[in-house]
Amino acid sequence: MKQMALILQGGGALGAFEYGVVTALLERGWQPTAVTGVSIGAINAAAIAGAPGGDIAASLHRIWAAITLPQVPWLPASQQASLSLFGNPNFYRPRTDYYDMAQWTSLCSTVPMYATLNRHCDFEQINDASHMRVAVTATDLQTGGPTTFSNHLAARTEGIIGDGHIARRAHLNAAHIIASGSLPPGFAATDIDGTQFWDGGLFSNTPIDALLNLLEADEVDSLPIFVVDLFPSGGLPLPTNLIEVQTRMTALQYQNRFWAQYGGSARLPGFLDMLAALDTELPPASPLRQRPAFHWLMRLRALRNVQVIQAAEPTLTGGADFSPYGVSSAYQAGRTAVDKHFAATRALPAVPA
What we know:
Elements: E1 2-8, H1 15-27, E2 30-37, H2 40-49, H3 56-67, E3 93-94, E4 108-109, H4 111-120, H5 123-126, E5 133-140, E6 146-150, E7 159-160, E8 166-169, H6 174-180, E9 190-192, E10 195-199, H7 208-212, E11 225-229, H8 242-254, H9 267-281, H10 292-299, E12 306-310, H11 324-345
Parallel strand pairs: 1-2, 1-11, 2-5, 6-8, 11-12
Antiparallel strand pairs: 3-4, 5-6, 5-10, 7-8, 9-10
C-alpha cells in the first residue's frame, strides 16, 4: 500500500463523486494517511478517518446508504433529483416551528446528521492521529475567516496561518463535522465553544492550507496529495440559458482558487522553483529560517505533489440530488475519473494491493 493525502471539497450530493474517487484509489492500492474536508467533504473525511475496523470503502458505503433517499417506485429514477428539498431523514429535516418563523435563521435542522455520524463513525479512532490525521474547516461567523479543527498539527503550524485562518488542535466530534457543512440558509450556524460557525466552503472550498498543516517535515516533498475538484470552471462552453448561467455561477463560487495566489505570470511551477532557490541560497544560520512565515513558505513545497481529479461540470440540481440514481451516477463518475486521471498522466501509477 502506498500512502497519500486527500483534500475533499464541499458540494452536497456531489460528495458521492468523492466517494467513488476514494473507493477507486483504495482499489489501486492507495491508503490515506491524512485527509481534510469541507462540508460534505468533511462528512466523507469523518467516514474515512473513522472507518470502523479501518474498512474505508465499507464506511463510505454505509454513510452514503444512510443519506441516499429511498427510491420512489412510481417516479422515473432520473426525475427524483429534487426530492431532497422535502428533507433527508438521516441528514436534515425541514423546520416545522412555523409560529417562530420570524426568528428563523435556517430552513432545516441538522439534528439527524448528528445521529448518523455517531452511528457510523468511530470518533475515538478519528481523534487518534497515529491512525490517520484529519482536519475539517468551518467559517467563523464573527470574524468571517476560516477555522480548521484538527486531530494533529505539525510543528510550528498552530495559530494563525495566513489570511486570518486559524489552525486549532481539537478533540473532534460530530459538531465539528456539521459546523463545516452548516451552509445557510438551509442550515443554522453550529456552536462550538461559544463561537458560531457556518460552512467552510463559504470562505474556501478547497482546504489545501488545512492539509499542509497536517504534513510532517519528511512528507512535504514526497507525499502524493489528491485533490478532488467538484467544480471545474475552465474550458467549458458559454452558458446558453438561465439554468446554465446559474450552474456556472455556482461552479465559479466554489471553484478551487488556491492556485491563483501563487507565482504571478510564472504560475505555480515558477513559485515552487522560487521556494527551492530560496531554501538553497538562504544561509543555514540565517535568522529568517526561524520565522513562522519561512516555515509556512517551505511547507508550500508540498504543492508540487498535488494531483487533481476533476469532475464534470455539475448540473443545477446535482448538489441536491440525493436520489439513488443521482448518488449512483456521481459515484460511478468518480470511479471513472480516477481511471481517466491515471490513463492521462501516468505520473502516479497504480500500486499493487
